[in-house]
Sequence to fold (173 residues):
Amino acid sequence: MSDVVVLPVSLISALQNRSPVVWASAVVLAFGPAEMLPVGFALGAHDVLRDPWTADELIARLRARFRVQLHARLQARMTLDTVGFGIDVTGNLSPTRRRLLAVLVGNCGRVVPRPVLASVLPGRSATDSRAIDVHISAIRKEIAGSPGALSGCLIDAVRGEGYVLHMPVPGCG
Fold:
């Protein structure tokens, strides 16, 4: 099984016909000349790179794609609270922890500075640096017990900076 398939636009039909399992399960990135971009999308590619492309561009697009996929998986298990956009994988996260998790997911693979995380904490707890650590600890426990969208994700501390969410899929952290 492949997570990602990168191929010329001209080979999309061959992949669909010869490897339907790969086609159904993998992210397909096609590449080709500018005039082939609409064809690539019409044939079902998830994204199309215009020639000439670089490895950096490919990696950036994969990171964005997998970040979108995580959001989609979370949406399938999301509980929307009355305050806003709370993400809740099993119903046990407080609104504050949901907001912290949403910030981490939105910045998957990137360090989220402590001041940014503190900005979503209510009232005086925003000035308490340990409050962030306590909330992150609770979110880690929730993720560890979740069989769903965030299963296998890790939240790492970056000393003196903040926290980063890593996903068990290529292209994100």
